[in-house]
Amino acid sequence: MALLDQGWTEEQAQGLLDALKVSHSVPNWKPAYLQTLYDWCGQRRKNPKTIEAQLDFIAYEICNFHEDFGKALKQARTRGEARLVAERFVKQLTAQQAAP
Predict the structure, then answer these.
(1) Do 94 and 28 meet the contact criterion of CB atoms below 8 Å apart?
(2) Domain that holds residue 71
(3) DSSP one-letter code for 8
(4) Given this model, what pLDDT does residue 93 score?
(5) Using CA atoms, how far apart are residues 85 and 94, in angstroms rounded to an integer?
(6) Phi and psi dihedrals of 22, rounded to 5?
(7) Contact indicator for 40, 60 with CB cutoff of 8 Å
(8) Which pLDDT does position 39 carry in this prediction?
(9) Is 100 domain-assigned?
(10) What is the DSSP letter of 25?
């Protein structure tokens, strides 16, 4: 699993997975994040509807663009603590855009 490959514990990875609620479909993310997922997967010849590709993308995003979140996640010691930290990150992915 990409998350474990990045040095997170199983508890931290599970907490992130719990917060993400990933599935074998299009994630419920903001359009900008979805487009970034599609672009990222296209460059790597991955299917963006697979859990593996979605998790690989999230690991990439955390390691390259959300380092503060990654540090906070690594400080979590339990699955519950990791889920609470991850829920803040997930809000950024899923927040509804303001109506014009």
Answers:
(1) yes
(2) 2-20+29-93
(3) -
(4) 79
(5) 15
(6) -70, 155
(7) yes
(8) 97
(9) no
(10) S
Residue 95 CB partners (closer than 8 Å, separation 6+) = 30
Q: How many residues does the chain have?
A: 100
What's the total number of domains in the chain?
Answer: 1
Please check whether residue 98 lies inside any domain of the structure: no
**58, 8 in Cβ contact below 8 A?**
no
Quickly tell me which residue has 């955390």 as its tokens: 62
The reply to whether 87 falls in a domain is: yes
28 token code pair: 């419920």
Q: Per-residue confidence of the chain (100 residues) as pLDDT tens digits? A: 567 777 889 998 888 888 887 767 778 888 888 999 999 999 999 999 888 888 889 888 888 898 898 899 999 999 999 999 989 888 887 765 444 4
- Tell me if 73 is assigned to some domain: yes
